[in-house]
Amino acid sequence: MFSLSAVSKSYNGQKVLPAMDLTIGEGKTIVLVGPSGCGKSTLLRLLLGLVEPDTGTVHFREQEMAGNAVLNLRHQIGYVIQDGGLFPHLSARQNVTLLASYLGWSQDRVNARVLELRELTHLPADALDRYPVQLSGGQQQRVALMRALMLDPAVLLLDEPLGALDPLIRAELQRDLREIFRSLGKTVVLVTHDIGEAAYLADEVVLLKQGVVIQRGTIGDLLHRPADPFVTEFISAQRNPLDEVTA
Ligand code: ADP
Ligand code: MG
Description:
The structure is a single chain. The chain has ten helices and ten strands. The protein is an alpha/beta fold. The strands form two sheets. A six-stranded mixed beta sheet has the order 6-7-8-3-9-10, with helices on both faces. It has a four-stranded antiparallel beta sheet with strand order 2-1-4-5. Helix 3 runs parallel beside helix 5 (137-149) and helix 4 crosses helix 5. The longest helix has 18 residues, at 167-184.
């Protein structure tokens, strides 16, 4: 589905990704984890063609993500960011339908798709005609997910989509996301800094440190067969303090 070959990226002379080789197959949920600043968001933006590599290539379905091809390819990719990134001056419905309307979908087709997605994402019907500020954080993310799925993309890229939500809402959305990923069977690349969330959602985890893949595998591989001391360090740094209390 995606293939990165010797991709490097620097900002202001600072190497964010030294030389990334990565392939992402079809139909799996891949979760990118790693410390803040290790290049997770940059990697997603490279997949989406929002950022161009300094060297190396990004391919999506055998086509290079570069130049004129980018806009077209991007329609096959849904993207959700942490705060939803909804347009504040548009209602939830307008946010969801903007691109489909622009592409000339009929009103009937748009309405049918919105209904389907509202059911899939468990968004209450009356939320559709509200503006983003009138929605809870969790509802905003459900709308952002509907928008990302509107054109039925082959891939979903999600950058810390639950990062700004409080724990109860977050747990509820984690359950819904897992259900949605399973029922759709799409390729999903999700970024989180929460190893528990990664364990819950991932078929495969990719742990990054300073733009380098330290380990790629199941959560069981990372826990029981760490490729590097950093893997264990990263995982144990996130252990719930309550584990110690109840132990
Ligand atoms: P992560 O998502 O893992 O926290 P990012 O990919 O956002 O990491 O950032 C990796 C590094 O690149 C950070 O040091 C960040 O400050 C820097 N960076 C990212 N985007 C830009 C940009 N547009 N301009 C300058 N520096 C950037
Ligand atoms: Mg980030």
